[in-house]
Structure formats: C-alpha cells, structure tokens
Amino acid sequence: MKLLLEIFFWLGIFLVGYTYVGYGLVVWLLIKIRKAFGITQPIMNDPDYLPEVTLVVPAYNERGYIETKLQNSLALDYPTDRLQLLFVTEGSTDGTTELLEAQRGQYPNLRVLGGSERRGKIEAMNMAMPQVTTPLVIFTDANTTLNPKAIRNLVRHFKDPQVGAVAGEKRIEVLESEAAAGAGEGLYWKYESFLKKLDTELHSVVGAAGELFAVRTSLYGHVEKDTLLDDFVISLRIAGHGYRVIYEPEAYALERPSFSINDEQKRKVRIAAGGFQAIGRLKYLLNIFRHGWLTFQYVSHRAMRWAVAPFCLPLILLLNIPLALLPQEGVLSAPAYRLILAAQLGFYAAALVGNVLENRKIRVKLLFVPYYFSFMNWCAILGYMRYRRGTTSGIWEKVRRAE
C-alpha cells in the first residue's frame, strides 16, 4: 500500500519539478550539446532589410489609451512609407473611433476599421487581415507601449524563410509600491522570457504573447471566433506547418499590471480555459514522430503547465499525509515524509499570508513566489472547470489595469 502511494507521490513531484524547473535545465543542456557539435540556429541581423509592414491594433473602447498608442505607433523607428497603421475599433462607443478618424487626414498611413457591433478581438483580427496588403503583419494591444526599435527587431528575423512568426516580449511595468499581484506577474514574465530564449535556441517558441507578435501575412489562417488564446493558436498553427517561431526580447510591449488580484484572477482563469481549448484544437501537435522538437517543447512548456502540474500539486499534498502517518518503511521513513509535509504546509501557509497581505495592499517580497505560484496554479484549475462548463465566446471581459 505504502509503495503504491510513494510511486504516485514521487511521480507527482517529478512532473511538477520537470514542468517548472527540469524542462529549462533539459533544454539548456540540449543547446550546449548541439553547440558542441557546431549546430546553432541562424541569426538574422541585416539593418537594410526593411519589408513593408502593417501594424494591427484591435481597440474596443480604448479611449483612455488610444491617443497614447497612436503617438507611440507613429514614433516607432521604422520608415513611414513602409509602415501601415490599422486600428480596428469594432463596436466602440466611447469615442475611440471618432478620435482616430479625426487624425486620418494628418497621417496618410493611418487606417481605421470600425463597425457597429462588438465581436471580440479575434474577429477584429480576422476582419483586419483582408485589408492587409503587406507581406508582414504585426499585432499589438491598444493598452501597451512599444519600444522605438520594436518593429526593426521583429522583422529582421523574417529574412530567414524558415521563420513564420516572431514573438515580442511582454514586460510588466511594476512600481516599487506595487502589490504582490503586479510584482508576481512581473517575476513570472521574466522567467517566461528566459525559457523563451532557450526555446528559440533549441527550435521554436511555443506560443506568442498577444501584446506583440508578427507573422507572415500569407501564413495567417482564419481563426475560430470563439478562440480564447488567439496569439497562442495562430503561432502554434504556423509552427505546426514547419516554420519556426522566434522570440525577440528587444521588441517589447510594456503594460501596467492588473488593477487588483481579482482582475488578475479573471484574466488568468480565462487564459487557462483557453489553454485547455487550444490543447483540444492542437492535438495533432502531440505526434512527436511528425513534429519532433515542436511536440517536445509544446508538451513540456505548455500542455504540462496547464493540464498536469496544477492537478499534481493537491495530489502531492494529499498523498503526503498517509505517507507521514504510516509506520512501514519505504523510499523514505515516516519522519522524513513528515518534514516534507511540514514544508508543503509552510509553503501554502506563506501563500495564504501573501493573499491576506495582498488584499490589504501590503507588499512582502519573500511571499511573492509561494503566493503567485499557488495563485497561478489555482487559476489553472478554475480555468479547467470553466472550460468543462463550455467557453463559447471569444469576447474578452476587459480587465482593469493599474494606473
């Protein structure tokens, strides 16, 4: 009996450890081995490679951000005659469309695609694509600020014909006084950026951040209107056709963190639900004999993050209890399992304290990791429940951002 409990207990620990730490170590080691044999990925850096580009900005009721976004877009370090700006304001009722229309006469490369009905971000993107005549298209959110050389750093990779998409970096602008939700979100994205750098060196990143990513126009396929993670599905389908998706950290979109932990929870639950939806729609990527490295990266970096690790964590805790109480000898003694149980309980207690302090707007750096790690995995479980109930709308419930 105890042996069976131990098998599941240690298997759960292995799966969680591999998902969050082991995968990065394995990829790092694989890259070192490949480099030792002289195998590296090509790096494109021709400053004269400046293809025509369309910057698409879905913007539903973004009056509070749209003027800043327009000025940021116009100030980007890229030839004006090679850059088209296309704002899709579908169904906006707050003056977003009117403000942009008033600017069209002043900026000939600015276009506005409106509409009377809100259909959601993915439908806005689907509406925009027939209007795109450039070989490359870049998607970015209305509430983000791009660094001046973002477009140059994205498009340079497309000189390699094997590159089908390029993912920019999402950066969270966290102030010193921010609550744990924002600080934890910032730490999470820094770790994600590190893994994406490794993914690019090995083969391809598995999913782009919707805040900023570029694709070859010819490779964009119509996406189902109820899709929750458009950026993930678009980039993975391109990778599934044999193209690489590159990560470019020097092209970044800066945004403020969620206004509160409740706003962040709504966002993460929806993302997790979209992750389960994507796993169902991209199940052909699980064929490692056909997709090779991509399957390995997709399963390890994404599928396990959504569908395995969050459910292993409560199982590990529950299995630890009888292992700490049963007197029979096993892989470890009962006292050793008691220490592990105490460590687990201490970790989750720290997460609970972090939650209490977060609600009181008290910032304690020591609690960032246990709090945000637990919060993120709990949201994944809630996301699965939402997915099982049915997720039929691709229309996001807008989340408030910190001022």
Mind sketching the topology for me?
Layout: H1 2-36, E1 53-58, H2 63-74, E2 83-88, H3 96-103, E3 110-113, H4 121-128, E4 136-140, E5 145-146, H5 150-155, E6 163-172, H6 180-202, E7 212-216, H7 230-240, E8 244-255, H8 261-281, H9 288-291, H10 293-307, H11 309-325, H12 334-359, H13 368-389
Parallel strand pairs: 1-2, 1-4, 2-3, 6-8
Antiparallel strand pairs: 4-7, 5-8, 6-7
Helix pairs in contact: 1-6, 1-10, 1-11, 6-13, 8-10, 8-13, 11-12, 11-13, 12-13
Notes on the structure:
- There is one protein chain.
- With 403 residues, the protein is an alpha/beta fold.
- It has a domain at 53-293: Spore Coat Polysaccharide Biosynthesis Protein SpsA, Chain A (Alpha-Beta Complex).
- It is 52% helix and 12% strand.
- It has 13 helices and eight strands.
- The protein has helices at residues 2-36, 63-74, 96-103, 121-128, 150-155, 180-202, 230-240, 261-281, 288-291, 293-307, 309-325, 334-359, 368-389; strands at residues 53-58, 83-88, 110-113, 136-140, 145-146, 163-172, 212-216, 244-255.
- It has an eight-stranded mixed beta sheet.
- α2 links the parallel β1 and β2.
- α6 crosses α13 (368-389).
- The chain is globular and about 80 Å long.
- The mean pLDDT is 89.
